[in-house]
Structures are given as structure tokens and as C-alpha cells.
Amino acid sequence: MPTETPVVTRFAPSPTGYLHIGGARTALFNWLFARGRGGKFLLRIEDTDRARSTPEATQAILDGLNWLGLDWDGAPVSQFAGVARHAEVARQMLAAGSAYKCFSTAAEIEAFREAARAAGRSTLFLSPWRDADPSTYPEGAPYVIRLRAPRTGQTVIQDAVQGDVTFANEQLDDMVLLRSDGTPTYMHAVVVDDHDMGVTHVIRGDDHLTNAARQVQIFDAMGWPRPVFAHIPLIHGTDGKKLSKRHGAVGLQEYAAMGYPAEAMRNYLARLGWSHGDDELFDDAQALAWFDLSGINRAPARLDFKKLEHVSGWHIARMDDETLLAELRAFLRANAQPDLSDRQIARLRPILPALKEKAKTLPALLEQAHFALIERPVSPDEKAADTLDSVSLGMLGQLTAALQHASWTRDELEQAAKSVAEANGLGLGKIAAPLRAALAGKTHTPSVFDMMLALGRDETLARLTDLAG
């Protein structure tokens, strides 16, 4: 029985800047589709624009993919390194008659278009060299190699997302494959690379849909099998317009810097334009099992920061403590902040289960963990200092004495605080505010009893003594 062709997908960014969130989603879709089927996910750096392509931008793409947790098979392929191969294929097409030499100059092409505009005709360039006798070729003159595209009929893209998309061939020109300096055009190089890399599925933004109509003509001319195309809708801002910097963060590194865990970003990006029933929250194993091209929507997806925060909070809450600690440390390193000390980690561990239930991002969690990360003496901020009047300082002194011999359990800590408050004719809430000031120096903190348990007897009493005298 014939075996099914293994799935091979690719992500092919141009290294001219940071990794855009739209590019990150495209990479994720390709990764999920390939990995979920035991296939290969390849990375190609489309660096033929030598003026704009930089090593720094290439590294930024690699760093972004690594942070997002998307691994690729083999070494990244440089499109520029394949220039000789691209030229070879163009000359094969020339020899086979599916391409031709065009000696038209830039001035002649512009004159053709001006005349067409004046006459109200299509400005699509019709080269006079398409069917010229080779004996008429000007000796030694520069030329480009153009595709001999069909002039009649239709080119149909059978797209896994968009359905059948039809283009009239009369609206597609004989595009240039090889420039007069012998360098390939992007449109030609992409097809050769996809064929040589064995790509079976091209999953990319729907802004490439028109490109596909021209590219399949090269596949067909070479007698190569077409890959399955899946053109996915772009990401829009909340206002329904194409995503741009005015909508907020557009670079993947900005989301990493804001403290969204990578696994939350994978979940969120997967749902931007793809769905599996009503499932909004899922882990990697579920995404790999569920993801298919039929679940991709045709309509543009909209970026929604509130939904991203919800997804992020869900993932943080269900992380095991050691994974979360590793995420926090990686976040601090990425933002050039000091790593957590052993002492800080020891204080964090017992409070993590309480902190992660409420935090939406890693910085929000670190903000709540502030009490565990600071050292004595604690300096209350302005709001916390306002809670420290003579009455509250007196209660802290009484509580310090009451806690000297308490067994360090939540019940006994609560009872001690309640007894001190009642002795002063007040409710438990009245002692909580100065307690927060003493233990964390802030007014918004985790439960005072969670903080006391995390800090331990000696550190808690020391902080209370510092403040209450």
C-alpha cells in the first residue's frame, strides 16, 4: 500500500526587523500542523534583500522563535545561499521554452505603460520578446528571463482555508524570474526553495494569495507538484483595521517583556483565527492533537488584550511551582534585572500557590511577591505609611509580643491578630493594614497570614520589631 507523504511545513521570514506577532502566529500554525502529524517544521530566512537583511534581525527572529518554544528541524536555510540554484532552474525553464529572454529596457516598459494608460488599456506589460526569433536577439545586450505564463484561461488556487480562488490569466503578467544581473526574484526563489525543501503545505498570510497565483505557474512549468496552500487571515486591531503600532505591541519581544508566559502566548495565538469548537483554554498537547487547517477562519482575527490576560492568568495558575519559578527567573534575566537569590526563592515557594491564582502576568505576580523579595528594614511607601498612626503602631507592638511563643500555624496567627484587634475594640481589618505596611511596605499585598507563613517566625517578628519598636 502507498504510504502517505510526510508533512513538511516552513516558516520563511525576511530578516529586516523584529518578529511581528503575525509572523509568530504563522510560525505557530506551521509548527502545530507539522508536529501534530509527526512531520517536519523547517525555517528559511529569506535574506535576498541584502540591503535590508541584517544578522541582528536574523538573530531576533531566532530568539523570538526560541522564546515561543517553536523548534525547527535542521539548520535554518538561507535563501541568498541558493542564488546559483535559483538561476539554474530559470535557465532550465528557458531551455524548455517555459521562459524566455526579454531585452526590453526600463524606459521601454514605462513607455508601454504610459501608452496603455493613455488608451485606457491594461498596463500589464506584454513583452515583444515573448515569441521573438532568437536570431533577432541584440548581441551582448542585457536581458531578463521571464516566465512564459499562459495568456488565456484561468489559474485556480485550491486553498485549504479560502476555498478555490480563481485568477484570470490575462491579469497575470510574464513575471521576471532572473534579473539582468543574474540574481533571482523573490517570487521565483520561493518556489524553488519550497520544492527543494520538500514543503508539502504552505501556510502563510492571505496577503500572499495573489503571489500564489503566479508561483503555481512556476510549479506547473517545472512539472513539480504543487504544495497545499492555506492562506490565513491577517490579525487586526480592536478597531478592525490592520494591526499596527497604534494598537499597542506588535513585536513578539514586547509580549515577552510584558511578562506573558510563552505557553500562554502559544494558546492565545493559536486561537487568533483558528478554533476547536468553543475551547478557549488548552495546553500544548491539546493544541497539537486538535489543530487542523479546516479550523482556520476566513475572517481577520482581532487582537484582544483582555482575552490575552485571561489566557495568561489561566496558564500561570496551573503551572507547577518549579516551572513558574523558572519562568520568573527567565523573565528577570530577559529584562536585565537581578536573578532571585536562594533566600528569595525559599520565601517565594510557600506563597506561590496563593499568588499564581490571581496573577495575570509574571510582573503582576512579582509585584504581589514584593514582600518576599525585599530585605529589612522595610520602607513603607506613602500609602502604607498613612496607615501607621499611634494606635496601629501600638497594636503592632502588642501583636509582636503575642506572637513570640505562638506555634506558626495559620489558625494561631489569625487568632493572635484577632485577639489584639478585639482588645483594642477594633475589627481584624484594622490591624491588617498596618501589618501589610510592616511586612511588605505596601497596601496591596497577599493575605497577611500567607505573608507571615512564607516569611517565617524570625523574619516576621524582626520586621514587626523594626516598625513597632
Largest sheet: 3 strands, parallel
- The number of strands is 12
Number of domains: 3
Name the helicity range: 40-55%
Q: Regarding quaternary structure, how should these chains be classified?
A: single chain
Kindly estimate the percentage of residues that lie in beta strands according to DSSP. 5-15%
Give the mean pLDDT: 94
The CATH homologous superfamily of the largest domain? HUPs
Overall 3D shape: elongated
From the N-terminal CA to the C-terminal CA, the straight-line distance is: 85 Å
- In the CATH hierarchy, the architecture of the largest domain is 3-Layer(aba) Sandwich
Structural class: mainly alpha
What CATH first level of the largest domain would be assigned? Alpha Beta
- Spans of at least 5 consecutive residues with low confidence: none
Q: What's the alpha carbon Rg, rounded to whole Å?
A: 32 Å
Strand order, biggest sheet?
1-2-3
Q: How many helices does DSSP assign?
A: 19
**CATH topology call of the largest domain:** Rossmann fold
Domain Aminoacyl-tRNA synthetase class I anticodon-binding: 326-466
Catalytic activity: tRNA(Glu) + L-glutamate + ATP = L-glutamyl-tRNA(Glu) + AMP + diphosphate
Pfam families: Anticodon_2, tRNA-synt_1c
Family: Belongs to the class-I aminoacyl-tRNA synthetase family. Glutamate--tRNA ligase type 1 subfamily.
